[in-house]
Amino acid sequence: MDNKKNFSEIIRSNAVTIMFVVLCIVCLIFSGQTVPYVLYELFGRMSRNAFIVLALIIPIIAGMGINFAITIGAMAAQISALWMIEWGVSGLPGFLLALVMTLPIAAIFGFLIGNLLNKMKGQEMIGGLILGYFANGLYQLLFLFIFGNLIPLNAPGLVIKGSTGVANTIDLSNDRGFKYALDGIWKVPFGTALYVVCGAFALYTILMLVMKKLDAKKAGIRIAIAAVLVVLYQIPFVASLFAMVNVPMVTFMVIGLLCVFNNAIMKTRLGQQFRAVGQNRTVANASGINVDKVRVIAIVISTVLAGWGQLIFVQNMGSFQTYGAHEQVGLYAGAAILVGGASIKKANNSQAILGCILFHLLFIVAPSAGKNLFGDAAIGEYFRVFISYGVIALALVMYAWNDVRKKSNLDEL
Amino acid sequence: MSSEYVLEMKNITKRYGDNTVLSDVSLSVKKGEIHALLGENGAGKSTLMNTLFGMPVIHNTGGFEGKVLLDGEDAHIMSPFDAMQKGIGMVHQEFMLLPGFTITENIKLNREITNSNLVSRILGKNLESLDMAAMSSDARKALDSVGMGIDQSTKVQGLPVGYMQFVEIAREIDKTGIKLLVFDEPTAVLTESEAAQLIKVMKQIADSGIAVIFITHRLDEVMAATNSITILRDGKLAATRKTSETSIVELAELMIGRKGEAVVETDKREVPHEKVALKVRNLKVDMPGERVRGIDLDVYEGEILGIGGLAGQGKLGIPNGIMSMYDVAGEVELFGEPLKLGDTKTALEAGIAMVSEDRKGVGLLLDRSIEDNIVFNAMQIHGDYLHKIGPVTLKNAKAIREVALKMIKELDIRCFGPLQNSGTLSGGNQQKVCIARALCMNPKFLFVSEPTRGIDIGAKKLVLETLVDLNRKQGMTVVIVSSELQELRSVSDRIAIVSEGKLVDILPADASDADFGLAMSGIKPSEHKDGGANS
């Protein structure tokens, strides 16, 4: 009886994730796409998108819900990217300089957003969303009128010919851009990547064992897992599935670093403050925590990280739509983290990563599934947009519903 | 300079605008003593404590007059954080705990023990990493000192309420340099054995040299635990007593006191007791802040029953529960017919009307006219004052105007006319509009909740007289819920006193102050035998 209850509880609390797994499998079957191709696409999409999704975690923990205002962080990144091309700083130096330039711009934006959201506590999500739309207007003013007119741009192809303003598409693949600046540093086939990761993991485990931070049994299990993975890969069938996958090692390392950062910051005094403020502002305030300041810090960190995430995204894509690339960033990242089982109150790294995988899996297979089932790829396209809004709505409704369900406490009286 | 007293508050006066809420109140607490602070709601206990803690609500409204001395020295306490640093702690009535944190994390909240690391040396103290082991051992010590064996790494979520109270205390004890600890109604949520344990812990704390201020309404606990007592009444100091030199009856009397003359004179009469109009059995209401925990009550046809008690003890939950404004359970019979709980419309249709205590929130549509307000319920529930033309219904403007004018005349609503917006009326006249609306329903049974809250004395008299008139002339059964005991005594036939969500006793209107005081602190007067100190 108790088991049964737990089971239904698990189903209910993970309904969104489970629904998505089922949906992905169904679409995968009907899409007719081969597994190697899907995996190839998936790794590519993960490398360029996971960072932005991970940027959402801190504001959720600080009780501000999904930070839809990361759109504005993405705008900061695009401003930086534009100037790298204008100045002609290409390749890795260009990418790094763009990171540096994004930092203050996004931090200032984040500071402003944070202060505004402090005036509308409890409405942060809708506030962030609308703020994104509003900032889009300012962004257009900047790119259509100020850049290229008041501030002249000289790089070839950056300004619309015979008109004013920045061109529709900014190309990063020419000799002024920084396409693949990060991905290209160290890109290896999946097999090599697997050996490197498993080897590093084993080494780390042994090191921990020597330093006596880990007991022998656990270390044994960890090394065994690494060994099994390597052995599995020796089976030709398994290897063939990953045949098309090329892994941009440095990009994934950066994503890994962000995961470590998210965990590490929660173990500091600041992290404790994020969690306290997220749970109950009144209690946090009563204990002397400056609630408003903590919330601003959370948004600043998130906005800067989102800006960097957008740079990782565009260096992988090789070009971006000047007036559209940032628009759906908040929506898709928010949907992805919710798909992974996060709520607007709780989120962690694994939920962000899992959500990212499932969400992009659906993006890969839905169009061709739509084409095979209904004879039109547009239906799949429509389907995935519909799904991402639906997921957010569902997560919000389920959160409110769980809240109401808990409230009846007549029995205790 | 050191002093006999840890805390002295001298001649504190606090005004909000023209309204004096504390006048010339003094309070002194010695090292290692437990000092009780007693008083009804509105007596000024919370304002006094807000002053002590430097709450923004005090400083934003012009500060206060008088002096606060800590250890004989002038303490300028400007914020709660400041108070904390000067060694004043508070155990809150509403728990200030984070459910998702472990007991350790809660005890050490914002006072975490940290180690510096590479990043924190560059970017500041906030990025120092937490030393969980040290925090945990501190928490263990604090928990042991309040006699709690529970594992300190348990999450607070799901702990029994009693445990949470002890975690709060452990947190305050863990603060270094604590000199004074305020307990705000700590035993209200505890079971009997937990309350006894708490008093034991409180005595231990006092023995270790910390001064304790104990705010409670349970007089027996005051007698059992404290050394001295300060009693406030109407924002003034009513008395200061040594516990050993007073009795529970004296305390009850001092708390209630006579507050002015009776507002309304009524004739003495035989209390009606023939037919039960409303029979309530095991009523439970989940109204936040006013929970009702199982009440049995009979209201006789034709009487005026008063329901009194301190705020937060559940008296407001009774009418709101029967009208199903909140989650409710239990059995209610109205004139012998069972009443289904859980749907406000059913209650209204059965002939119960209610004048809510929340005049502006629930009572009135502030931006609608007086006449719309008066007929609103009758129109919605009974379909009165409507023309029906096929599927379309229209307001019957003529009938509405007639009834509005009649009510304005009968209840003496001072206004420019039936079209004036009810939001622009004075409080007393708004209350009359609420009563008019209840009367429009032609109710058989009327609940009136806090009818005189926030209205001036002249309007008070009119409102109360209206209620008495309704009862005497039309024979309507009226239940008045009010915090103003004096007002209940002047109009009611019987007065039910509620404490901690339970009915303590039903007293005649002319019972003594001491009896009412005892009942409000949860002691049935007839069961309190000697009246002497029983500590």
Describe the structure.
The complex is a heterodimer of chains A (413) and B (535). Chain A has 413 residues and is mostly helical. Among the domains of chain A are: 54-184 and 255-324, no CATH class; 328-382 and 389-404, no CATH class. Chain A has helices at residues 2-13, 15-31, 35-54, 57-61, 70-87, 91-118, 124-146, 190-210, 216-234, 236-241, 249-266, 269-279, 281-286, 291-317, 329-339, 349-374, 377-407; strands at residues 169-171, 187-189, 246-248, 319-321. Chain A has a two-stranded antiparallel ribbon. In chain A, strands 2-3 form a two-stranded antiparallel sheet. The longest helix of chain A has 31 residues, at 377-407. Chain A starts with a helix and ends in a 6-residue tail after the last helix. Chain B has 535 residues and is of the alpha/beta class. Among the domains of chain B are: 91-178, no CATH class; 262-351 and 444-535, 3-Layer(aba) Sandwich (Rossmann fold); 365-442, no CATH class. Chain B is built from 19 helices and 24 strands. In chain B, the strands form six sheets. Chain B has a six-stranded mixed β-sheet. A six-stranded mixed β-sheet of chain B has the order 18-21-22-15-23-24. A four-stranded antiparallel β-sheet of chain B has the order 2-1-4-5, covered by helices on one side. The longest helix of chain B has 18 residues, at 457-474. Chain B is globular, with a radius of gyration of 27 Å. The two termini of chain B are 36 Å apart. Chains A and B meet through α12 and α13 of A and α3, β8, β13, β14 and β16 of B.
